[in-house]
Structures are given as C-alpha cells and as structure tokens.
C-alpha cells in the first residue's frame, strides 16, 4: 500500500510540474501525452530454454505488465516517465495487505536540446542501437531493460553520434565504491555509437563499448567491444553485415568468487531479405558467436557476450541461447530462414533455425573426442492481429528438434517433445493527447 501511495504521489507531482511548465512556456510548441499499457501473456512450457527430462510435467503461467506512460515535449526539451508493475497472476492474494515490490519506475528521463545539433539525455532510460544485438530494450521480457545513464547526442545532416556514460552503485557509500560483483551486470560503462547515412540506400554504424565489471576485491576490470554494421536497403532488397571484436578482461564467476579472465572473442552477422510483394517477404541469415572449446584448458575466454541486447529477438523464440544462459559456453552458429506476411490487419510467419556449436563439444562417452557440432533445428510460428484500435492479440508456437550434442550441453532428453507456446493481449491506447 505504501508503494502505491508513493507512485501515486510521484504521478501527481509530475502532472502538476508539466502543467506549470506548460503555463510558463505558452509561446512554445508543446505536446503532452498520457498512455497506458496492459499486457497479459499466457505461456506454456515444455522444453523452453532447455530440454525437458523424461516424464517432466509442463509449465503454465500468466504474467502481466502494466504501465503508465507520460510524455511532454517542447522546443527546449523532452521528458518521459514510465511507471511499471510486473507480476504473475495469482502470486498475490486477493485481500492483499502489503506490496511485493513488483512496482517500479521503468523509465524516468529528460533530454535537453543544447543547440540544434547537441542534446543531453539523462536518467533511467532504454538504450537501443542498430538491431538490438549489443544494446536493446528487451521488450519481450515483461520487465524489459533500462539503464541509469547520461547520453550526449550529436546530429547533423546524415551523421548521428551518441556518447553514453553509466556508473552503478549499491547505495550511498561514504567510503569505497562497492557494487555487488555480478558477471551479468556492469559497474560502469562508456559507449560510443556513430551512424552515417550516405544516401537512402546505404548507412554505416560503428560501436565502441568499454564495459566495466567489479571483482570481489573491489577492483574494476574492463572489456572492449568494437565493430561496424553496414546496411543496404532499396525497399525490395535489404542486407546487413556486422562484425564485433571483444577484448580486455572479464570477471568470471568461479564457485562463489570472481576471477580475472582475458577475452578474445568475435561476432559475425549477415542477412539478406527480399520483398516479393508489399505483404510477403523472405529473409536468410547467418550468425557466428565465438565460444570456448570443451577439449581445451585455458585461462582466457573466446566466448562472445552480446551484453545488453534483446536476445529473444535472435537465435529462436525458445531462448536456448544467451537469454540468461549459454554465457561463457561453446558459442553458436545460427543459419536461419524467415518467411513473413504482413497484411492490413494480420501478420504471420514461420522462422527456421539450424544451430551448431562454434567450438568443440566434449563427448561424454569419450572425453578426448569432439562430438558433431550440430545442435538441432527450431521452428517458430507466430501470428498477430488487431482486435480494435489500441488492442492487439499475438500468439505463437515453437518446437525444438535437438541432437545428442544439444543434450550433452543442456542436459534433458532430446527424444521428448520440447515445445513452447504463448498467447498475449496487448492493450496500449493513448488516453490523452494535447498539442499546442
């Protein structure tokens, strides 16, 4: 109850502040918008993220994201606030007496326009670059991802550049800079992203990420991810090519402590799509994320980390790879084909992935021998359609056909039916909008 009161007070204060700003800047063009999002999703699990064990029962649950979004914009600044509650249906009793802290602030940022070319964006915010591979919103996850960061932006003609800074701390410490060591979180980061649009068909992006993580002893170690992304699009044919190299150091979790680990890893991604008509298209692509051989012993890692990307978007909807798993493992090769249809009120498609390990997998029956690198094939089917304005329905079904090698890596039983399905209602209307 206290949490609800705090959020209600915050919402009231923000709306009051926006009203006062509007009164003080009547001569400026303004836009104020209030929107909500209610997104319940039913999911069936039987082999999601990993192969099921023999006779393992299925899982079934309904999760829900609820948001209030407030936006204000004028010629001097933009501000955005997103209040969020994420929970599983039934995890709280009906006559609840206290909150379980599922409510939070997903985003709370402002962007000030310093000149026509420069602006400064600061606060809790989503960071998204290019295809979401290194930085993404992770919008599929009900909680999504946001960062506490400063971003200095520059834009002139066909060139855009962004310089991001972030620094994490567990609390206010008058002595020391302790941040709980976590291989999946960062202590600090500095990121440079640049994009140049040469014409309507070609553009080039470049990303440099300096990612800092903390050790148990308080020392920070830094890794670097660097590389370009090239895009060609003539409205009929679209092609992308991406390469990243990772070097530096990482904080590897060994037992209950962290150890310094040297990094030498790489990523290659290429895809090409063709539009047969306005409604129907096909895409073929390949991804390579380097990994560690199970037949070698070394104090360095060759496993590429996609860090803060929207990993559900890649490598199959069943999330076998890089969605809270497969880190520091044998890497991945993904050969995929997507067939998509986009009609006025309905969308549907079929995606097929053929997975292979990027490094040797040890044969459990003969520890000095490498297994076939083939991991399996996943088929994803999806559809969505509009129920009415502001309301949509989405659903899908996926199945994994795994190999012995996948079983050796993940455990479970490849001969069981490993599948997953979902059904989701997306209610996201604009409740109020004012332009002046």
Could you please describe the fold and organization of this structure?
This protein is mostly beta strands and 436 residues long. The protein has a single domain, classed as Porin (Beta Barrel). The protein has 2 helices and 23 strands. The strands form 2 sheets. It has an 18-stranded antiparallel β-barrel. Strand 11 and strand 12 form a beta hairpin. It is globular, with a radius of gyration of 23 Å. The N terminus is likely disordered.
Q: What's the short story on this structure?
A:
The protein is 7% helix and 55% strand. It has 436 residues and is mainly beta.
Order of helices and strands: HEEEEEEEEEEEEEEEEEEEEEHEE
Q: What is Rg? A: 23 Å
Give the total of domains. Answer: 1
Global outline: globular
What is the rounded distance between the termini?
A: 37 Å
Helical content stands at under 10%
CATH class: Mainly Beta
Mean pLDDT: 91
- CATH architecture label: Beta Barrel
Portion of residues in beta strands equals over 45%
Secondary structure tally, helices: 2
Low-confidence stretches: 1-5
Here the CATH topology equals: Porin
> Based on helices, strands and strand pairing, what is the structural class?
mainly beta
The profile of the biggest β sheet is:
18 strands, antiparallel, barrel
Total count of strands: 23
């Amino acid at each position: 109850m206290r949490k609800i009161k705090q959020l209600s007070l915050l919402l009231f204060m923000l709306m009051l502040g926006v009203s006062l700003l509007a009164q003080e800047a009547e001569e400026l063009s303004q836009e104020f918008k209030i929107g909500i999002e209610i997104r319940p999703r039913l999911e069936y699990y039987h082999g999601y993220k990993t192969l099921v064990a023999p006779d393992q029962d299925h899982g079934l649950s309904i999760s829900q994201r609820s948001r209030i979004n407030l936006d204000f914009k004028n010629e001097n600044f933009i501000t955005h606030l997103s209040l969020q509650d994420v929970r599983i249906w039934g995890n709280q009793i009906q006559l609840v007496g206290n909150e379980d802290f599922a409510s939070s602030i997903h985003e709370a940022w402002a962007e000030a326009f310093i000149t026509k070319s420069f602006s400064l964006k600061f606060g809790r915010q989503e960071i998204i670059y290019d295809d979401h591979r290194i930085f993404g919103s992770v919008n599929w996850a009900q909680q999504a991802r946001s960062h506490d960061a400063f971003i200095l932006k520059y834009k002139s003609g066909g060139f855009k550049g962004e310089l991001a800074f972030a620094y994490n701390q567990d609390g206010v410490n008058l002595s020391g800079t302790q941040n709980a060591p976590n291989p999946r979180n960062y202590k600090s980061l500095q990121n440079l992203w640049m994009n140049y649009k040469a014409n309507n068909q070609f553009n080039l992006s470049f990303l440099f990420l300096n990612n800092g993580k903390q050790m148990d002893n308080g020392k920070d170690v830094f890794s670097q991810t660097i590389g370009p992304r090239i895009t060609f699009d003539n409205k009929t044919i679209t092609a992308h090519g991406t390469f990243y190299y990772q070097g530096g150091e990482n904080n590897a979790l060994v037992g209950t402590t962290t150890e310094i680990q040297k990094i030498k890893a790489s990523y290659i991604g290429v895809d090409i799509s063709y539009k047969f008509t306005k409604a129907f298209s096909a895409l073929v692509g390949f991804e390579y994320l380097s990994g560690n051989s199970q037949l070698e012993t070394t104090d360095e890692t060759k496993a590429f980390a996609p860090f803060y990307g929207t990993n559900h978007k890649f490598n199959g909807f069943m999330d076998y790879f890089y969605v809270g798993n497969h880190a520091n493992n044998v890497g991945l090769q993904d050969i995929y084909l997507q067939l998509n249809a986009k009609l006025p009120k309905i969308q549907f498609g079929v995606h097929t992935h053929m997975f292979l390990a990027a490094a040797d997998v040890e044969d459990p029956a003969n520890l000095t021998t490498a297994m076939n690198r083939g991991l399996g094939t996943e088929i994803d089917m999806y559809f969505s359609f509009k129920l009415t304005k502001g309301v949509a329905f989405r659903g899908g079904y996926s199945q994994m056909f795994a190999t012995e090698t996948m079983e050796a890596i993940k455990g479970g039983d490849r001969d069981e039916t490993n599948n997953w399905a979902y059904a989701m209602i997306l209610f996201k209307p604009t409740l109020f909008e004012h332009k002046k």
